[in-house]
Amino acid sequence: MVSVKEAAQYLGVSSSTFKRVCDKYALPLHRTAGGHRRISRSDLDHAYSLLWNGPRKKCVSMAPSNPDGTQELVEYLLDRDIEAIIATIFGQMESPNQLSHVLENTLVPALWSIGELWRTKQLDVYQEHICSNTVCAVLDQLLYRIPKVEADSRLAIGGSFETNLDSIASKFVCLVLRSIGMRSIDLGCNLPVASIAKAASDLQPAIIWICHTHIENPDSIVENHRKLRQSLDSSVMVVIGGGGLSPALRKTLHDCTYFESMSMMVDAINANMLAPVQ
Ligand code: B12
Question: Which of 8, 238, 256, 267 has the fewest CB within 10 Å, making it most exposed?
Answer without folding.
Answer: 267
